[in-house]
Amino acid sequence: MTTAATIAAELLLDAGGFSKGMKEATKQAETFDKKMQDIGSRMQKFGATMSMAVTVPILAFGKASVDAALESEMAMTELETVIESTGGAAGVTADELAKMADELQGVTMFGDEAIMQGQAMLLTFTKIGEDVFPEATMAMLNMAQKYGSIEEASIQLGKALNNPIQGVSALRRVGVMLSDQQEQQIKDFMAVGDIASAQRVILQELETEFGGLAEAMGTTAAGQMAIFNNELDSLKEALGQAIIPTLVDFIKALTPIVQAIADAPPWVQKLIVVFLGLLALVGPLVGFAGTIVSMVGTLSSMGITLGGLSAAFASIGAVITGTLIPAIVALLPVLALIAAAVVLVYMVWKNWDQLKTTLSQLWFIIKWGFSQAIDAIKKSFASGMTSMQNR
To answer: 296: helix, coil or strand?
Structure first.
């Protein structure tokens, strides 16, 4: 016969076992919580980390390289155009000027494109010949270093050298003062048609006032930093020049596709929009899944304190991590394949005479894609169910 003492003893033993079980469950839930929090955090950060650390810098550098190459091409085209339009009055070639600009970039704070633009401006003043053009380029940079603008310096210097007599007055307005003797020399040289000698009088005075300024500034810390940046731009130009031909070929290949899509029926265009939208959702879906995983871990811990719900939350976590997320990842390629397949079928139909063999290849790709996706989904659900049964 069961006595009150026996019943009391059994209750105490059961309470002890229950307490021990609760402690063990709490420990397991805390472990599960940490795992879920870690997985969720990793999933949330993975996409952003890869994008910021790899994708964005590569794309930014690639764009900068292409931009630098395009800028260099435009500067070279400007030189060639001005030389052609002036009939080669200066007696210099675009390649010679580009080489000069590249050398000056290495000793001054000015980039080669800026120098070439200044040279192009000097070329428009057709009285500046090849004998004085290198000196004129250096004088332009010295003046630009003093006054802060290659464009302004090239115009002022070009006007002065193109008409030395009137140029004396123009230079005086910007603080360049020639002596009476120098002004007379200029008039004497111009009287006998020796414009080059008259120009050299002006250039000699500019050398006296500003000579070596641009190169001297290039030796300063700021100058060395500017030179480094300019050389880096040259590297970008070289890489951009390597990228541009491939980019042009890609654009040429892409143009017919763009035209075909523009001419496609509205239902095909809507399908493409949906496909692009799905691609855009991949990142947010992964981040959202990571947030859910983290929440499951947190709710699991809360379940213990609310009355032993850890098993339920653990099962939910198993389904999400073992079934839902892999299923989403598996379905996205399927949706992409379906959208691509429909568009390709339409293209084949429009160009059946040229693309007879494409249909069989397309069907093979579709079957392969579906079989791979279905296998992945089956494995995901099987893994999730096994995980639930083991708990």
So the answer is: helix
CB of 290 within 8 A of CB of 298? no
| Gap between the Cα atoms of 204 and 225, Å rounded | 30
Using DSSP's 3-state secondary structure scheme, residue 5 falls into helix
Sequence-distant (6+) residues with CB within 8 A of 194 are: none
Query: Residue 298, exposed/middle/buried by CB under 10 A (0-12, 13-18, 19+)?
Result: middle
> What would the two tokens of residue 204 be?
């000699």
Query: For the chain (length 391 residues), average pLDDT per consecutive 10?
Result: 57 54 60 64 64 64 75 88 89 92 93 94 92 93 91 92 89 86 92 93 91 91 91 82 74 70 73 69 61 58 48 54 58 61 60 54 57 61 60 58
Answering whether pTM is above 0.85, one says no
How many other CB atoms are there within 10 angstroms of residue 338's CB atom? Answer: 16
Angle at 71 between CA 66 and CA 75, to 5 degrees: 150
The Cα 185–Cα 208 span in angstroms is: 17
Alpha-helix runs per DSSP H in the chain: 4-50, 56-85, 94-105, 112-123, 133-147, 150-162, 164-172, 180-191, 195-210, 213-218, 221-263, 266-305, 310-319, 325-350, 358-389
